[in-house]
Amino acid sequence: MLRFENVSKVYDDGFQAVKSISFEIQQGEFLVLIGPSGSGKTTTMKMINRMEPHTSGTIYIDGKDNNTYNASELRRSIGYVIQQIGLFPHYTIEKNIAIVPQLKGWNPKEIKARVDELLELVGLNPEVFANRYPKELSGGQQQRIGIARALASNPDIILMDEPFSALDPITRDQLQGELITLHKKLNKTIVFVTHDMDEALKMGDRIAIMKDGKLLQLDTPEKLLHEPAHGFVEEFIGKHRIIQNPELMPVIDIMSETVVTSLPQRSPEKALALIRQRKITNLIVVDEENKLLGIVSAYDVIKQLNDIQTIDEVLLPAEPFLFDSATAKDAIIMMDESPYGMIPVVDERKKVVGLVTRGSLLSAMSSQWTDSEVAE
Ligand SMILES: Nc1ncnc2c1ncn2[C@@H]1O[C@H](COP(=O)(O)OP(=O)(O)O)[C@@H](O)[C@H]1O
Ligand SMILES: [Mg+2]
């Protein structure tokens, strides 16, 4: 979709801002460019839509050299969002969003419908906001308009240069969550510049780390954290970072290690006594070696108390379960499929080592997940 091949940029004053970088971005990918100030992030981004021409190498968009596209068409076909928002103060919100569709010659009815749709998409009521002026909006609302405007003509690629860095932490967190949701929904290719590692880890499918015009490493957040390719990368990430992304949080850190288990030969009366004593709703059934066999629900035991000899007769499959190498994210996804509201965690020999419940999962996540992410 987007490919850099040995791309360099030497500015007119002879300064080399970008030094022979090569990388590829897939359609629908969320790529974060991160690095210290002056490392060449903005320059790299601006070369994509030719706001800054590159001085050597080739940039391919959909397999075509970006120098072969008509420059203004190229700019209009790629969405662009910047920190300073760049809304026109004398234009209403509606007119601000409509700029590119207007340039593209859409008819007024199409434009109006698109503006309303985009305002809804970024969580602003068109009836309230369409006719306001930028200064009548908060910083976060203005940034939402910036995003709506970048999406206006339905571009495949969106470039975002530190779009949230001027916002207060709460608004930033909220917009980050909304952008993640939006990205999943729209499947756009996003190149997102930041200097904030937390933001990068939260947002990026992959993260590219730049320094002094060079691309040091481009990897998934997990790989960056576990296998930093360069001393600088490790330093930049921060060695004692508190990992906030559930994808990076091991399930063994959030599970409960006290699991009430039973052998399958237990009588229903004894099982019921255990269930009552430990105030649980499901019993995890294991063999002599503590290997997971299945689950028995308290409800089934009570219902069939007089009809069964052992709980083995009401044993339900242990699906779903998690291995101890799984992440909190796996648990979150799996919890939706779990009919029991809990998931046993086993080691590689299938011995039960813990249990994740919906409650423990939520309390581990609630401080770290924004509302919009939980709502997905
Ligand atoms: N128009 C320009 N002329 C000369 N040097 C520039 C120009 N724009 C940026 N630079 C220099 O190129 C380097 C990279 O800048 P930039 O891409 O904006 O970095 P970042 O976005 O990572 O902070 C910086 O040292 C900057 O001073
Ligand atoms: Mg910059």
From TrEMBL:
Annotated compartments: Cell inner membrane
GO cellular component: plasma membrane
Residue ranges constituting the ABC transporter domain according to the UniProt record: 2-237
EC number: 7.6.2.9
InterPro entries to which the protein is assigned, alphabetical: AAA+_ATPase, ABC_transporter-like_ATP-bd, ABC_transporter-like_CS, CBS_dom, CBS_dom_sf, Gly-betaine_transp_ATP-bd, P-loop_NTPase
Top-level EC class as recorded in UniProt: translocase
Topology class, membrane: Peripheral membrane protein
Keyword Cytoplasm: no
Gene Ontology biological-process annotations: amino acid transport; glycine betaine transport
GO MF terms, alphabetically ordered: ABC-type quaternary ammonium compound transporting activity; ATP binding; ATP hydrolysis activity
SMART domains xrefs: AAA, CBS
Stretches assigned to the CBS domain: 255-313, 315-372
Catalytic reactions of this protein: a quaternary ammonium(out) + ATP + H2O = a quaternary ammonium(in) + ADP + phosphate + H(+)
CDD domains xrefs: ABC_OpuCA_Osmoprotection, CBS_pair_SF
Domain of life of the source: Bacteria
Keyword Protease applies: no
Keywords: ATP-binding, CBS domain, Cell inner membrane, Cell membrane, Membrane, Nucleotide-binding, Repeat, Transport
Family from the record: Belongs to the ABC transporter superfamily.
Xref: PANTHER family: OSMOPROTECTANT IMPORT ATP-BINDING PROTEIN OSMV
Subunit relationships: The complex is probably composed of two ATP-binding proteins, two transmembrane proteins and a solute-binding protein.
Record's protein name: Quaternary amine transport ATP-binding protein
Naturally occurring in which organism (per UniProt): Filibacter tadaridae
Organism phylogeny: Bacteria, Bacillati, Bacillota, Bacilli, Bacillales
Gene: opuCA_1
